Amino acid sequence: KNPPVQPPPLIRSEITERPFFKNQWDFDRLAWLKDEQIVALLQQIDHYDALVALKGANDQVKEKIFGNMPERSCAIIRDEMDYIRCGPHDVLEAQTRIVRQMNMMFERLE
Predict the structure, then answer these.
(1) Which residues 6+ apart lie within 8 Å of 85 measured at CB?
(2) Cα-based distances in Å from 40 to 57, 68, 69, 85, 108
(3) Model pTM greater than 0.85?
(4) Residue 62 CA, distance from chain mean position
């Protein structure tokens, strides 16, 4: 399995110079955010949304998110992920809400 190609670092000027850029985010790109951006995002999103969204996330996103959470929170979410029942539609909705929150976070930088 080939490792994914890393995009160039996202910088503020790219967001403001190319407004369409911020609308191209998807949940998988969370893995490319800086740790401090992940921490800020985690403070703004709903626990249940994080739980459901991570249920359908790829390993890179899970690793990035869990790497920026307190150990106790990671353990709780990992445990809850084993028991939660949700369909693909629920996962997509939760991931979409998180991406919207991420977009709002970047809009505030402008």
Answers:
(1) none
(2) 19, 10, 11, 27, 12
(3) no
(4) 9
